Amino acid sequence: MPEPETDKTTRLSNVSVRFCGDSGDGMQLTGSHFTDAVALAGNDFSTAPDFPAEIRAPRGSTFGVSGYQVQFSSNEIHTPGDLVNAMVAMNPAGFKTNLEYVEPGGIVIVNDDEFNKSNFKKCGYDEGYNPLDDEVINAQYKICRVPMSRLTRESLVEEESDISVKDVDRCRNMFALGIISWLYSREIESTIEKLQNYFGKVKNKPEIAALNEKAIRAGYYFGETAELFPSQYDVAPAKLKSGKYRRISGNEAIVLGLTTAATKANKSLVYASYPITPASDVLHGLARLKQFGIRTFQAEDEIAAVMVAIGASFTGDIGVTGTSGPGLALKGEAIGLAVMMELPLIVVNVQRAGPSTGMPTKTEQSDLLQTMFGRSGECPVIVIAASSPGNCFQMAIEAVRLSTRAMCPVIFLSEGGLGNAAEPWLIPDISNIPDIEVKHAVVTGEEFLPYMRDEKTGARPWAVPGTPGLEHRVGGLEKQDGTGDVSYDHENHALMTRYRAEKIQKLQDVIPDLEVEGSGDTLILGWGGTKGTILTAATMLRERGIEVATAHLHYINPFPKNIGDVLNQYKKVIMPEMNTGQLRMLLRSQFLVDIQGIQNLCGRSFFVEELADCIEAIVKGGAK
User: Fold this and answer.
1) Does residue 437 carry a pLDDT above 70?
2) What is the sign, positive or negative, of the torsion defined by CA atoms of 101, 103, 104, 109?
3) What's the pTM?
4) Ordered domains of the chain (ranges, CATH)
């Protein structure tokens, strides 16, 4: 229970806040600035940006609503929260589409100036109906009607000023940020400093910086004097592991992980990509790191992008391409070429809801079977998956390490919910990250056999083209064992098919075992971005007196060596997935364990409480 610290301030252990409005209202920027203030206060946090799919939907429509949710806490947390304690709605469309995410009794701050007949019609409210006057809504939530547009103009517009009303109205989000910053006792000076630096120095528009500063201060002082809220709230700093932290998103972590891996391998990295939501930020981030030997190429299509990456790998560089589900389908034949040529290649797949264009800004885990089998012939690749925004850093390094060791493509699975979300990240000591050993073929004086395999790894030698004495044939036709000549021999094809699979299985010797946390007769097994929700749901179950163990898979092909033993230790194994049960099907078929699934196909992660309820029902023998 919250405990009053003073007559005006209530101390809370954790808070969830959601900002929503039209895609032109700056909700992502507002949420990002508030998250930075939360981070500077020392709180643990987790964010969930929610973008509209349309590039520019009609203003005021429900299709154009943009949202940003952040949970911050004095304890370690793993999710952005289920229901929020407070919401800022800049227009009726944001109010209508997001009200369901506010807890009963929660605070809803609305821009009252936008709640008019025209905007009601745009978002589908009945004529003559104002949701702010609805008795049921007012009984369930604390509705705070703030004329943000008018107050922003009054605080910013001065006589004889040449600042346009349009520029003034763009500052409404900063007014809203000021209110929330006061309500949750977060300082605003760091935000003002960033605005001054960005608009004043980078954009050379100090007048815009001044407007934003005035707006956020006006909102802050309004919260302090308006007496609209039952209390001001505060969340104490979290007791995190000591060290230097920064806020990081999954896509940012991939950028830093790939750059670190290239440095540790002492190789140049070529990233070739075609822009696609939600993976484009990886291309943008790497393009800014030329000083680390990173080269980026925006190709004309997905197929060209992966072929450029394969060409980079053929010449001895780290070849990487990035995409999402539809692009992965287009890259399938070229990935098969890399498998046949046995070259290292990293394919980053930031998954989104499909099929086809699907819901491009919503998250899902539905590309797993395509990742495993979506190519012609017997075409195995290494498959790994990240479990949190920060974990994307480690798994990007693993992708390079495993690909260069086995001379095989790696498909690195992230998700939109990981790529866009952010959390505190303990900046690692780079000197503690092991080097990645890369061996290129050398001239020995004996006949060079490009498909002669290393007994330990099963990989063929990586010969840099143009080296005298290392000439060899490449292409998509089947290779003769050893020589690499084209071969149509039946037995040779069977042998080479087996070799291409065996070298992936040999990686079980260098990947970590599956670790289990907790005890009990039931194991909750997850993969990818479900980890945070699973850990939080497991804690909730233990509070209900239900003991469960948890484990999380980062390596899917190959599986960890001990996974069979782990699965057979438990009476019940439950696997939550944001798909129809794809990994569950693979595990059941390989290990003959009756894994029970919990599926989520909503385009968002599981809510903690709903997942805990589903697990409890299975544990107690209810519906599967």
Assistant:
1) yes
2) negative
3) 0.95
4) 3-235 (3.40.920.10), 246-432 (3.40.50.970), 516-619 (3.40.50.920)
